[in-house]
Hints:
Order of helices and strands: HHHHH
Number of helices: 5
Strand content: under 5%
Shape: elongated
Amino acid sequence: MEAPIKAFESKGTFPSQVEALESEEPTGQTNAFFNDAPTGEILANRAKAVEVTPFKGPKYFAINDAMQQALTRVDVDKTDDPASSWEKFVTAVGAL
């Protein structure tokens, strides 16, 4: 449990290990952007409420990668507008 807490402290990555969600470091976190809401406590409570493991089918990672590429084209690289990037995503997923 020590590693996820250290990662949280150094990079702000919220821990996924249930045991780490009991630690004050992540659960005591607030966020000025959200009016100093207790975001650490909120995220920990939401994580604890997950009761099932989401299904990831055989094409999950390929579809997820295609979606990330589509978002990157629009938001990061600015090489496509949303409509054309969506069309490229649909074509890529259709080819799977």
